[in-house]
Design a protein that fits this description.
This protein is an alpha+beta fold. It is elongated. Helix 4 crosses helix 5. The protein has nine helices and 21 strands.
Length: 346
């Protein structure tokens, strides 16, 4: 069931509440059918951006929101043809599952036969046929989430907006529904903007990710670009675990106590530091390693073990190894890092 999709363009959209600027003017283009994830900590401006797209807020003077060729800046949410799922789902407790899903169709005065056919289609898509006549209070958290999504999709929106829809669920259910939602969004092909503070959600769901901090966009890119080539320390430190390496820069390499670490591309600005991800390092003979230290802690995580290594850098370093590897506290180790895995940030 493919839906009509629509590109979205925000131009110089900022937002000020009672004299306080909560969102700096930003430019953002979202492709038709793209799933764009707004990622960042609480208070970074991601939900405000979503509300500007929805029509629940209007941008400061000079800001513009366009759906395709249409300027919708002054249109309220009910005239933008958007579907929205809130963090708390905002389902109607006095209506059963079928009534909740069909509510938007009733408001739009869709004929009874067409509305029932559409609701049946969504019940099947969300695997809710056996729950169609149940009151909302009898549903699990996962079932409520699917009802809210079906209700948002029922009027065939041009744009789907999701504001942290999985936050209220337990971790296991969240992982399951994240995979289901990813498959569904690909099937629908609807332009989707998804707000979250969860990195795993952003990485799995986003065609592109917008990392936000303090009311500004820090970086826009694919999940791989955001993770492996962060544009700033704010991005690098928010997305995943990051290790910092110390030393002196000489001729394009960082000289440490044990040797040199070279970055794969020249660094042209400032005196950068090198960083790397825990999974991009391996253990090596400490006699020949550029980095060497002592295991302070070994944390078994099932498929992997995270080692905390002290003495190799100003801060403890984290290195992920295969789960079957066992090393005692106090063991001296070397750390090897492939040049292409190093991240240089000024």
């Amino acid at each position: 069931m493919k839906l009509d999709s629509m590109p979205i363009t925000l131009t110089q959209c900022g937002k000020t509440f009672r004299g306080t600027r909560v969102l700096e003017p930003l430019d953002l283009s979202i492709g038709a059918g793209e799933t764009l994830v707004l990622l960042g900590p609480s208070g970074c401006g991601k939900t405000t951006t979503l509300r500007l797209i929805a029509g629940l807020e209007t941008p400061d003077a000079g800001g513009q929101v366009r759906f395709g060729d249409d300027d919708v800046t002054a249109l309220p949410i009910e005239r933008r043809k958007v579907g929205m799922v809130f963090q708390n789902y905002a389902l109607f407790p006095n209506l059963n599952v079928r009534g909740n899903i069909g509510y938007g169709l009733k408001i739009a005065r869709v004929g009874a036969a067409a509305a029932r056919e559409r609701v049946d289609e969504l019940l099947a898509m969300m695997r809710l046929q056996d729950h169609a006549d149940k009151p909302i209070g009898q549903l699990s958290g996962g079932q409520r989430q699917r009802v809210a999504l079906a209700r948002a999709l029922a009027p065939r929106p041009r744009v789907l907006l999701l504001d942290e829809p999985l936050t209220a669920l337990d971790a296991r259910l969240r992982d399951t529904l994240r995979g289901e939602m990813n498959a569904l969004l690909r099937e629908l092909g609807v332009t989707t903007v998804y707000v979250t503070h969860d990195q795993a959600e952003a990485m799995e769901l986003g065609d592109r990710v917008v990392v936000m901090s303090a009311g500004r966009i820090e970086q826009i890119g694919t999940p791989r670009e955001i993770y492996y080539r962060p544009a700033s320390r704010a991005v690098a430190q928010f997305v995943g675990t990051l290790n910092r390496v110390a030393g002196q820069w000489r001729d394009g390499a960082l000289v440490t106590t044990g040797g040199k670490l070279s970055v794969p591309a020249p660094v042209s600005t400032g005196s950068p530091e090198l960083f790397f991800r825990p999974e991009d390092a391996s253990l090596a003979d400490p006699a020949h390693a550029a980095l060497r230290g002592v295991i302070e802690q070994s944390t078994f995580l099932g498929e992997r073990t995270r080692l905390t290594i002290g003495g190799a850098a100003p801060d403890a370093l984290f290195v992920d190894v295969a789960g079957r590897i066992e090393l005692a506290r106090g063991t001296q180790v070397g750390i090897a890092i492939a040049p292409e895995a190093l991240i240089a940030l000024a």
